[in-house]
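dumping this here before i forget
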Amino acid sequence: MTRHTDPSSESTSDVRTLVDLEDVRGGVDALLAEHVTQLRGTLAAISPEADLLADAVERMLSGGKRLRAAFCWWSWRAHGGEPDGPDAAAVLRVGAALELFQAAALFHDDVMDDSDTRRGLPAAHRAFADLHVEQGLHGDAVRFGTSAAILLGDLALVASEQEFARALEPLPLARQQRARAVFDLMRTEVTVGQYLDVLAQSQPWGRDPAADERRAREVIRAKSARYSVEHPLSLGAALADADDDALATVRAVGLPLGEAFQLRDDVLGVFGDPATTGKPAGDDVREGKRTVLVARAARRARERGDAATGDLLGASLGDRTLDDAQVARVARAIRATGAVDEVERLIDDLAHEALSLLAEQPWPAPAADVLTRLARAAVDRRA
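structure:
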């Protein structure tokens, strides 16, 4: 299989190195640290017992690649933004708003998926459930943890809106309106995408693999692809006062690239190295994620009359009691169907579509090169 990217090259696959360019990470991290400090003060004025919420927000914000903020920044640069110009601070603050929105989505997503870990640490609902037990509190520990995590997500949503509003304040009204339209659409789409994901998890699975894949890709586009890549690129262009044609172009780049980004996540969810991903191996199997990967494995098993593999997938997907050996067995079965190679080709095709369009753009240096490298890094990452 021909790859369009070079995962061995640090210049293209090291996301951290790319996000550090022009101190995007440093600027966004400083704003997030400032937010946590302000949050601690606000919570302390309400109750000293609320400080644990600030701790949890800080832990969530301390991880992450800052990839969305980087896509926003370098799209802004590609459309004429200058790093020493008056609007640079606003773009970094939009990056911080994107990271806070990501934190909110992860708090809520972990509850809905009943995930055990996040970035190598216990997920927030698990941590607060453990706290309930450790302190000998009354009532149900699981419900306490779930409630706390939902509220943490709400706090992060409030903070994201605050940061975004502050970012827009110094900008001309027309630019505010264009950026606001992108940001509001992004939040609506992710919320609907989360619902579609929950709905897909509730549907009968394995009877119609084509319908399973259609639903999986619908979820990918609404829940992940657009807000991971397309909308950050669109926000950067809007903040640079790009015209409608330019916005249409970045959307055309961002959607296939964002879909490839999520498909890579789905592969890592079954075959990723826990030391790199921060999640147990095969966690998506235990959580019962209805991905394109498992839909294709089920389809290929059915086409071959491989009832054993079909039964194994049906019995294992969503079984939280699976031990590592059982998960490894499922992973081998998925790979044996050829589904992994199929998804890798799909990732390749989507990445090629985005990269080809990127190559056609007359964007200035260094933005054009960095956006191309970020695109490759998003697809070739191992975490």
